[in-house]
Amino acid sequence: MIKKPTLDAKIPEGPISEKWTNHKFNMKLVNPANKRKHEVIVVGTGLAGASAAASLGELGYKVKSFCIQDSPRRAHSVAAQGGINAAKNYQNDGDSVYRLFYDTVKGGDFRAREANVHRLAEVSNSIIDQCVAQGVPFAREYGGTLSNRSFGGAQVSRTFYARGQTGQQLLLGAYGALMRQVDAGTVELFTRREMLDVVIVDGKARGIIVRNLVSGELEEYAADAVLLCTGGYSTVFYLSTNAVNCNATAAWRCYKKGAHFANPCFTQIHPTCIPRFGETQSKLTLMSESLRNDGRVWVPKKKKDDRKPIDIPEEERDYYLETKYPAFGNLVPRDIASRNAEEVCVQGRGVGPTGYAVYLDFADAINRLGKDVIAARYGNLFAMYHEITGDDPYETPMMIYPAPHYTMGGLWVDYNLMTTIDGLFALGEANFSDHGANRLGASALMQGLADGYFVIPYTLGNYLATEKPAPVNTNAPEFTEARKQVSQGIKDLMNIKGKTTADEIHRQLGDIMIEKVGMSRSEEGLKEALEEIPKIRKKFYEDLCIPGDTKDYNKELEKAARVADFLELGELMARDALERKESCGGHYRVESQDEEGEAKRDDENFCHGAVWAFQGPDKVPERLIEELHYEHVIPSNRSYK
Amino acid sequence: MINLKEPQISSVCKKMLTGITGLSLVLFLVAHLIGNLTLFAGPDVFNAYAQFLHHFMHGMFIRIAEVGLLGFFALHIWSALSVQRSKKKARPSRYEVNAYAGGASKKSIHSLYMAVSGITILVFIIIHLINFKYADHEAVGTMTMENGIEVTNVYKLVVLTFQGNFGLVLLYMVAMGFLCSHLLHGIWSAIQSVGLTRPSTIPYLNLVGMAFAVALAVGFLLLPLLIFMMRGTFDPNAVPEYGTHARLMLAPLAPWILG
Amino acid sequence: MKVNLKIWRQAGPDAPGKLVDYSVENIDPSQSFLEMLDTLNEQLVKSGQEPVAFESDCREGICGNCGLVINGIAHGSKGGCTTCEIRMRQYNDGDTITVEPFRAKAFTLIKDLVVNRSAFDRIMSKGGYVAMNAGSAQDANLQPIHQDAAEAAMDAAACIGCGACVAACPNASASLFVGAKVSQYTWLPQGQVERSTRALKMVKQMDSEGFGDCSNHAECEAVCPKEISIANISRMRREFTKALFTR
Ligand SMILES: Cc1cc2nc3c(=O)[nH]c(=O)nc-3n(C[C@H](O)[C@H](O)[C@H](O)COP(=O)(O)OP(=O)(O)OC[C@H]3O[C@@H](n4cnc5c(N)ncnc54)[C@H](O)[C@@H]3O)c2cc1C
Ligand code: HEM
Ligand code: FES
Questions:
Q1: I need a surface site. Which of A361, A627, B157, C175 has the fewest CB within 10 A?
Q2: What angle do CA A60, A63, A67 make, to 5 degrees?
Q3: Does the interface predicted TM-score (ipTM) exceed 0.85?
Q4: Phi and psi torsions of A251, nearest 5°
């Protein structure tokens, strides 16, 4: 393979622990009096977007904040349950900034940028300070100090949490800060708007085109810089743990305007979700990973064994995680647990109506500890499960199956969070930066808030002070042109007038994605995906049906536009997965495994980020790379046997 | 006086006002009820009580109490009706189906029809005042107390009014039904309105409030009902047997009526 | 299983609205209520009709986006859950279910079952926060907070802003929403500085949005997916009154 010249991530000089400090000092500042002359567009109001918009407003910039939902508080960040990491070492258990940095790089299977991760670990502590000062009601000990738990297999207790609603509470903190700025007049709020394009003037991002989701009108907004905080794209799989309105549209349209897309195939599939029950399912529900602490995962040894689980005797059960990974047993990392579940189901030993589920059995734990102890630990999870499935986990084993959960890939950004389009920044899950090939639990919330509260206020200022963007308004021809394009795109979709709904197409795409670009990926499967996805896309453009009017509240139109982008992104994911002929983190190529069937990295050839550059419709995008260097965390193999 | 125009007062203050006035009216009812019940102690006690009310502080007390009560009623009615008015404005399009959510909810016909029960009470109060306060007190004459003072024989008035008057007793029963309904929600609600509840006390306050409401209504009904039903026991021309329990009961009031 | 639906259809805020009859067959009891509506919509779209407009996002009861009045009860009769958490298992074959939007003057209707709840955002902008610029916070453990206080704050903070309290209230009052926010911060040391102004300003904004006053029906608590206690309203009243005198 010919290696392309590596992209410049603009990583500051100096020792790793001083890079950010030095960089902050070296960056240019915007004069306080000039800040209000700079307009900034922030798309998205999740943890990343809300914290960025609020912080920039506090600094005095004129901010316009956009989101799809009717209120910023409903961004998908609200759904995060588990918690948020920080290197506070309040428990005196040996945590430190360096250890958090180390764990995150290693957890990402050596495909993340060291400098970014170190900065993330450095600011993690400020995030907790900031959130507590905002009144986020984190869990506390009797003595009144903050409580921590160990999460996602971490060896230290560094996770802060607020019941099962950490994401919601953090988001309410950021949302409150945002609303305070709205009241102060520095931030203007535009809800129920969907960004459909970025406007580029003189090579710089200078505005966006949005569709008003109530009136259906297209609107144009100009600014000196655009911040994309639009979240991840797990919904490309149709069924995922993400909210149904999550989408790739904003990022994808930017990609098509020149922002490169990095590591699209890096996705995380969460092992403990409630399996799907049938065709009409719209969403998969995440169950806390903690269930694996006491539950035992098994499937029948026999294929297509449709006896009731209690009727299957011990010796005919296969506790496959315990036999395969005696050291970690049921507590192996997310990717391994997920992959093995898929494997046994593909072998035909899956359970439940669809055959795509495995048992998570608490019978032993209940016998050993008593029902009360189990109820105290998992009572509300059991109740939720009972409610959704109708089965009582105290009586019969739970059924679980992995589900797409998080996307590590995203728009490529440099150390300053700027994409390859000048003036276009990407924050939070929308960028690709900090998690490499696998994200550790409780670190996405940390990253979103780090980007918004503590990184972008500096790096954006530096950009504005250095570039001094010329004034621009929406009368510029570039705006008219972009708007015309978007409007034409919508008309084209409306005019297909076929018979298939956007959801039907989305489900077909999702089936291919999960089967072929899901937990384990083979060259053959990926090639098939690359053939099948364009076929679905063709069907989409020939047979799509959208009732109603463009100038109205029209959910079918919204969905169709998003599916159009997923149909292209899905293909890029397959292409990326095909090109990355190694296994790493959440990306498992069956061709790249060691003697024991475990993922095998190929640091020789793939110690880089794959960065895709759009070349035009129906053209194969160019694969650039960002070379990764590990000076502190030396790549090693993960072993859980 | 009943200003139905949009009040320039915060919704919280409005609730405070309904609550405080409502609770005060309840306190008034409690006092009123205790007073009423003295009737069962005999004509002298009851008449002495009436005499006391009218002469306490040289008659100032009753004047102040009347004005105060009137004011409280006015404030209560104004603030409560203004709450009701806000309700109409806040939901211009009605639900096609209405239901009760149950569980923690305290929504009931009592809570929903506070204005109806309230207005009924108001009408009743007017009738009640006509019956007693503005009745012809001369007609019943006076009674001689043990110490020789002549007092208006309110006892006779009350007994005569209810005796044989089934219609009136029925009216009282209906009215007390509405009062009970008003207070079944009203008492706990007022405590909540003035901000004196916590998560743990709400269920108890609600129960206590309801029990209190029933007790008040039943208490007030005792008088008309018993007089109506036990014709023999309540004699309008009864003459007290002085020197027994009455003395004891009246001791605290002695300086005004006996001395 | 099969259900008959009566769904409120209204093309726009000023258009007339009415209940329209539909029926959905082959329902899986594991389907959620919203998935049942998805199925209906897919039928409608395929037969060239406009689907029923309704909102949802997380579909797991935390974002507060969904919200329907089902057989006269906001978020349905089960209690302690959002509309998206309702499973069809709860209904019997052949049931007739009436579905209406959240109705309140302050929640103007957008289309069918979709309403505008931005009044809540405006209330929040008047004090639903602790004014604390990014970067100026002290170490998080410097200020211990009693566990009970933290828990009480969390109880109030659990509000997802869905608006069911307003929808369910016979008076269309937003007292529970505002009460929860005001009392959350009273429990925390961070909330003390703005304690009085917060209560005054948020209540004032609530009043100006066209919500009704509260009659303590407590129907709001009964439908609240997070079971937030009306004691928070009581607390808000204390706060407000105290603020009137101490400000
Ligand atoms: C069920 C679940 C549980 C999780 N639990 C945890 C956890 O315990 N710990 C942890 O660290 N992480 C967790 N995560 C991951 C974490 O929640 C997310 O990665 C993170 O919140 C993403 O934040 P964000 O700000 O980048 O994006 P989001 O919160 O997704 O926000 C996206 C925003 O962009 C807007 N938007 C999107 N597209 C457009 C457009 N085209 N135009 C206009 N606006 C647009 C949306 O309206 C929204 O406001 C969890 C994720 C899920 C799904
Ligand atoms: C003896 C007479 C009365 C007593 C003891 C009484 C008591 C109360 C109490 C305790 C409350 C609860 C207050 C609150 O919720 O904060 C209440 C509410 C109410 N009262 Fe009365 N009341 C009396 C007479 C009236 C009258 C005459 C009316 C008038 C028209 C009236 C109308 C109302 C209404 C409408 C409410 C409900 C207010 C709301 O919706 O919050 N009441 N009353
Ligand atoms: S869709 Fe999020 S709460 Fe129902």
A1: A627
A2: 145
A3: yes
A4: -65, -40
Q: What part of C 177-206 touches A (C-beta under 8 Å)? A: 184-185, 187-188, 190-191
Please indicate, yes or no, if residue A298 is contained in any of the structural domains.
yes
Question: Which residue intervals of A134-279 are DSSP H helices?
Answer: 166-184, 249-255
What CA–CA distance (Å, rounded) separates A33 from A155? 48
Do C220 and C230 meet the contact criterion of CB atoms below 8 Å apart? yes
Q: What residues make up the domain containing A583?
A: 477-601
Asked if C87 and A552 come within 8 Å (Cβ–Cβ), the reply is no
- C26's torsion region: left (phi>0), alpha (psi -120 to 50) or beta? left
DSSP 8-class letter at A282:
-
Instruction: Examine residue A629 and state whether it is found in any structural domain, yes or no.
Output: no
- CA C192 vs CA A149, B218, C129, C200: distances in Å: 29, 47, 11, 14
Pick the atom of ligand 2 nearest to B185's CA: 12
With beta carbons under 8 A apart, name residues in chain A contacting C124. 73, 175-176, 179
Percent of chain A at pLDDT exceeding 90:
88
Minimal Cα distance from B200: which residue of C?
C231
Q: Name the C residues in 6-35 with CB < 8 Å from any B CB.
A: 6, 8, 17, 19
CB-neighbour burial class of residue B215 (10 A; exposed 0-12, middle 13-18, buried 19+) = middle
Give the separation between CA A50 and CA A69, rounded to whole angstroms: 13
A456 falls within a domain: no
C160 touches chain A (CB under 8 A): yes
Task: Report DSSP letters for A529-551, one per residue.
Answer: HHHHHHHHHHHHHHHB---S-SS
**CATH superfamily, domain at C3-111:** Beta-grasp domain (3.10.20.30)
Say if C43 is an interface residue toward chain B (CB within 8 Å). no
Model pLDDT, residue B4: 45
Q: Write down the domain spans for chain C.
A: 3-111, 118-246
Architecture of domain C118-246: Orthogonal Bundle (1.10)
Q: Do chains A and C touch (3 or more CB pairs under 8 A)?
A: yes
Nearest residue of chain B to residue C152 (CA atoms): B199
Q: Is residue A126 assigned to a domain? A: no
Each residue's pLDDT tens digit, B33-77: 999 999 988 888 898 889 888 888 888 999 999 999 999 999 999
Residues of chain C found within 8 Å of residue B189, distances taken between Cβ atoms: 215-216
Place of tokens 């923690």: B104
Instruction: Locate the chain B residue with the closest alpha carbon to C164.
Output: B101
Is some CB atom of chain B closer than 8 A to the CB atom of C244? yes
Neighbours of A392 (CB within 10 A): 12
Residue among B12, B82, B83, B87 with most chain C CBs within 10 A, to mutate? B12
In chain B the domains, ranked by start, together with CATH numbers, are: 11-90+108-238 (1.20.1300.10)
Give the closest residue to A344 by CA, choosing from A334, A365, A358, A354. A358
**Predicted TM-score of the model (pTM):** 0.95
Instruction: Collect all residues of chain A within an 8 Å Cβ-Cβ radius of residue C102.
Output: none
A580 to A118, A252, A429, B103: CA distances (angstroms) = 26, 21, 21, 57
**The pLDDT value given to residue B203:** 95
C181-212 pLDDT per residue, tens: 999 999 999 999 999 999 999 999 999 999 99
Instruction: Supply φ then ψ for residue A35, to 5 degrees.
Output: -60, -40
Report, in angstroms and rounded to the nearest whole number, the Rg of chain A calculated over CA atoms. Answer: 24
Residue-wise over A532-548: b if at least 16 C-beta within 10 A, else e? bbeebbebbeeebbbbb
**Ligand 1 atom index nearest CA of A50:** 25
Q: Which of C186, C172, C243 is nearest to B16 (CA)?
A: C243
- Name C17's bridge partners: C10
Is the minimum distance from the CB of C61 to ligand 3 under 6 angstroms? yes
pLDDT value for A161: 93
